[in-house]
Specification:
This protein has 434 residues and is mainly α. Helix content is 87%, strand content 0%. The protein has helices spanning 2-43, 46-63, 69-82, 86-120, 128-156, 160-183, 188-211, 223-252, 254-261, 264-287, 289-301, 304-341, 348-373, 378-402, 405-430. The longest helix has 42 residues, at 2-43.
Length: 434
C-alpha cells in the first residue's frame, strides 16, 4: 500500500510540475507576443502589417492539418510505454514522423505551386514581397507541422517540463531576433523569414531532444510496418481531426458571429473583453496538458479509479481557479480595459456572461483533455457541433433584445450540454460501457 501511495505522489508531483511549467511558458508566450505585435506594427506599414497578421494567424490552422495523426500517435506512444514496450513506442514515433514529413512536403508543394499559379493567372494580386513572405511561411509551417511530433513524443513520455522550457526558449529567441529585425528595418520577406523560421526552429529542437534518448535514436521502420501503423491509427486520427475542426469553430467563431450581428465598433468592444477572459482560459488549457498523457497511461494500465480521481481533482482545482479569475475580472476588468486599450467598456452583463463562460469552459477543458487521452472523442465532437449550433441560435435570437452580453451568455449556455456529456462519458468509459 505504501509503495502504491508513494508512486501516486510521484505521479501527482510530475503532473503538477509539468502543469506549472506549461502555465509559466504560456505567460512568457503571451508577453512576448504582445511585444512582437508592437514591434511589427512599427516595422511594417499598414498593408504589410495586415498581410503579416493574416500569415501569422495561419499557425493555429496548420496545427490541425495533420488530420489528427499527431494526437493519435501521442495516445499510441503513451499506451505502448504504459505496457512497457519502449521499443514499440520509439518505432511508432519514427514511422509517424516519416508519414508526417511526407504529408507536410506534399501540402507545402501544393501550396507553393498554387500561390505562384494564382498570381500568374491574376487570381491574387500580391506584389513580389507578399508572395515571397507567403512562400517562406508555407515552407516553415510545413517544417513546424512535421517537427511538432517531437512535442507530442515528449508529452507521451510525460516530459511536459521539457516542452515548457523549449516553448519559453522559442518565444524569447523569436522576440530577440525580431527586435534585431525591427531595428534593421527588415522587409516583409526578411521579418517573415525570422518569425516563421524561429517558429519552425522551436519545434525542430523537440526532435533533437527526443533523438538524444538512446532507446528512441533509431531509423524509421520499413515501409510495410509504417503502413500497418498508419492503418491502426486511421480511425483514431479521423476522430481527432473532426474534433479539432469542430472545436476550432466553437472556440474561435465568437468574433465572426459578432461581426455578422453587430456594428463594427461594438464588435471591437466584444473582442477586447473576449481577449481579456481568454487569458486565464489559455493559461488553464496549457496547464492541464499533462493530464492527457497521464490519463492515456493510467487507462492503458487499467487503473480506472486513478483516472477518475485525476479528472475530478483537476476539475475542482480548475473550477476554483477560473472562478476566482472570472470574479476578479468582473470587478477589475473595466478598469483594466480602460488602461490597456483606452476604451471604456462598462457592460456588467457582458463581463458576468464571460465569467460564466470561463467556468463552464474550464470544466469542459479538464474532462475533455482526460477523454482525449482515453481516445473518447466521438461523443465530444457531436456535442461540440451542438454547442456551435446553440451559439448561433442564442446569438441570433437574443442580441437584438438584450445586446452584446447575449453573445457571452449564449457561449456559456451552449457549452453546458457538453460539460454534462463529458462527465457522463468519462464515467461510462471507466465503467467499461461502449
Amino acid at each position: 500500500m505504501r509503495a502504491v501511495e508513494a508512486a501516486s505522489r510521484v505521479l501527482t508531483h510530475r503532473v503538477v510540475r509539468g502543469a506549472a511549467a506549461l502555465a509559466a511558458a504560456r505567460v512568457v508566450a503571451v508577453l512576448c507576443s504582445l511585444v512582437i505585435v508592437s514591434v511589427m506594427v512599427r516595422t511594417f506599414d499598414a498593408v504589410e502589417f495586415g498581410f503579416w497578421s493574416v500569415l501569422a494567424s495561419l499557425t493555429t490552422l496548420v496545427v490541425g492539418l495533420d488530420f489528427g495523426i499527431g494526437n493519435a500517435a501521442r495516445n499510441r506512444m503513451a499506451a505502448l510505454r504504459a505496457a512497457g514496450d519502449e521499443a514499440g513506442a520509439a518505432a511508432h514515433y519514427g514511422g509517424t514522423l516519416l508519414v508526417l514529413a511526407l504529408l507536410a512536403l506534399s501540402v507545402t508543394v501544393i501550396a507553393e505551386v498554387a500561390m505562384v499559379g494564382a498570381r500568374r493567372l491574376g487570381v491574387i494580386a500580391w506584389p513580389a514581397d507578399q508572395l515571397g513572405a507567403a512562400m517562406i511561411a508555407a515552407a516553415c509551417l510545413g517544417l513546424f507541422q512535421t517537427a511538432n511530433l517531437g512535442v507530442m513524443a515528449l508529452y507521451a513520455r510525460e516530459e511536459s517540463f521539457t516542452v515548457a522550457v523549449l516553448e519559453m526558449g522559442r518565444w524569447v529567441l523569436m522576440l530577440a531576433a525580431l527586435l534585431v529585425a525591427g531595428l534593421a528595418r527588415a522587409s516583409l520577406v526578411g521579418a517573415s523569414a525570422v518569425y516563421f523560421g524561429m517558429l519552425a526552429f522551436g519545434s525542430l529542437m523537440s526532435l533533437v531532444v527526443v533523438a538524444r534518448v538512446p532507446s528512441w535514436r533509431r531509423r524509421p521502420p520499413p515501409p510495410r510496418i509504417v503502413v500497418r501503423m498508419v492503418k491502426a491509427d486511421v480511425r483514431a486520427a479521423g476522430g481527432f481531426a473532426a474534433l479539432q475542426g469542430v472545436a476550432a469553430l466553437v472556440y474561435q467563431s465568437d468574433t465572426l458571429i459578432a461581426s455578422l450581428l453587430l456594428p463594427l465598433e461594438r464588435v471591437g468592444d466584444y473582442a477586447l473583453v473576449l481577449r481579456l477572459f481568454s487569458m486565464p482560459f489559455s493559461l488553464l488549457t496549457s496547464a492541464i496538458v499533462p493530464l492527457w498523457s497521464r490519463a492515456a497511461i493510467e487507462f492503458a494500465r487499467g487503473e480506472r479509479a486513478q483516472v477518475q480521481q485525476l479528472a475530478d481533482r483537476s476539475a475542482r482545482v480548475a473550477l476554483l481557479l477560473v472562478g476566482l479569475a472570472g470574479a476578479s475580472l468582473v470587478v477589475l476588468g473595466p478598469a483594466f480595459v480602460q488602461a490597456w486599450a483606452g476604451r471604456a467598456i462598462d457592460d456588467l452583463p457582458l463581463y458576468l456572461g464571460f465569467a460564466a463562460w470561463l467556468v463552464v469552459a474550464g470544466c469542459v477543458a479538464v474532462y475533455s483533455t482526460v477523454l482525449n487521452g482515453m481516445g473518447r472523442v466521438r461523443r465530444q465532437t457531436a456535442f461540440l457541433a451542438l454547442a456551435l449550433a446553440l451559439k448561433v441560435v442564442f446569438a441570433s435570437a437574443l442580441v437584438g433584445r438584450i445586446g452584446l452580453s447575449a453573445l457571452a451568455w449564449g457561449a456559456a449556455f451552449a457549452l453546458l450540454p457538453l460539460a454534462w456529456s463529458d462527465r457522463r462519458e468519462l464515467r461510462r468509459a471507466l465503467a467499461g460501457a461502449t
